[in-house]
């Protein structure tokens, strides 16, 4: 004997365990007969070959046990990192036939199904109400910009995946040196050969935020920073490029600090300013009076400077001569060390009043103050 659906509320219902066989008494008892379909009113027919069939009474079908989740409201198709979806997702419990199941207390958990690595979710759980519906509140993706899908699941139920979500940068939160300053000579443009110093506006997750444009200011301590110190970020880039910065004072471990209203300050990595090319000589220890044939003390010192007054990295020979010639002089030619030439054995052999000329490295000769050899 075969059971079949005689009437139904629609859809494509089916029966499970739809046949039974008569016993010796001509009785057929069904086991496990069930209707799979939409809730509503049904009747069944029972038939066998060569026999007149018969129709059952009305059967009212209600929902079965919860078996799966369906998305009734998709999350927004576009969102900002760290900002709750404008359209929060909602889901419904259903049985295997797609009927809504009224069951409260089921915890539905959202997770990242696809998208850039490392993303997390804020407020990723919701609980079904008496109607079996779960509505999320404050759900947000925290991560890098790109395309995402979310998966929604609950214990023992078939999960479901959302549509594609395009994530853009969140609100501007911080500054980052994306082309930090590097060691440069005094007076030269910092990073002049690599596009200048660049500072980028980012959200809290490291995404570049280009809107609205920001005025970014850089500064340092321990020296005067020259050039255009405040630069507005480029249209659609989120980047300020400082293309004419320079420092004329040598030093090590300088740090640039970038600031903008309402954003977290950024400090660059350390960098050095080295001397520029040798530019001029100067007597940094003048010759003093001495007795002929004896070394002048303290030792005469001549220093090589760059154009900004920094001691130049010069290791050439510096020579002292008596201005106008005359008088024997010894110990008057010395190799400079790191820009300083020290004449520790400078001797004049003839009494008189003198000045000395210093020259070397092709630099302009410089004259000392006068002194007496007695």
Could you give a short description of this structure?
The protein is mainly β.
Set out the fold topology.
Blueprint: E1 2-7, E2 14-16, E3 34-36, E4 40-47, E5 54-55, E6 59-61, E7 68-73, E8 78-80, E9 90-94, E10 107-114, E11 120-122, E12 125-127, E13 133-135, E14 140-142, E15 146-153, E16 160-161, E17 165-168, E18 174-179, E19 184-185, E20 197-202, E21 215-219, E22 230-232, E23 239-242, E24 251-254, E25 257-259, E26 266-267, E27 271-274, E28 280-285, E29 300-305, E30 317-322, E31 329-330, E32 333-335, E33 340-343, E34 347-348, E35 352-354, E36 356-360, E37 363-367, E38 371-373
Parallel strand pairs: 8-17, 19-27
Antiparallel strand pairs: 1-4, 2-3, 4-5, 4-6, 7-9, 9-13, 10-12, 10-15, 11-14, 15-16, 15-17, 18-20, 20-23, 21-22, 21-25, 24-27, 25-26, 28-29, 29-33, 30-32, 30-36, 31-34, 35-38, 36-37
Question: In words, what does this structure look like?
Answer:
It is built from no helices and 38 strands. With 374 residues, the chain is an all-beta fold. The strands form twelve sheets. Strands 8, 10, 12, 15, 16 and 17 form a six-stranded mixed beta sheet that branches. It is rod-shaped. It starts with a strand and ends with a strand. The model has no long low-confidence stretch (mean pLDDT 97).
The average pLDDT score comes to 97
The number of E-state strands comes to 38
> What is the rounded Rg?
44 Å
Overall body shape: rod-shaped
Low-pLDDT windows of residues: none
Helix count from the secondary structure assignment: 0
* Largest beta-sheet characterization: 6 strands, mixed
Specify the structural class. Answer: mainly beta
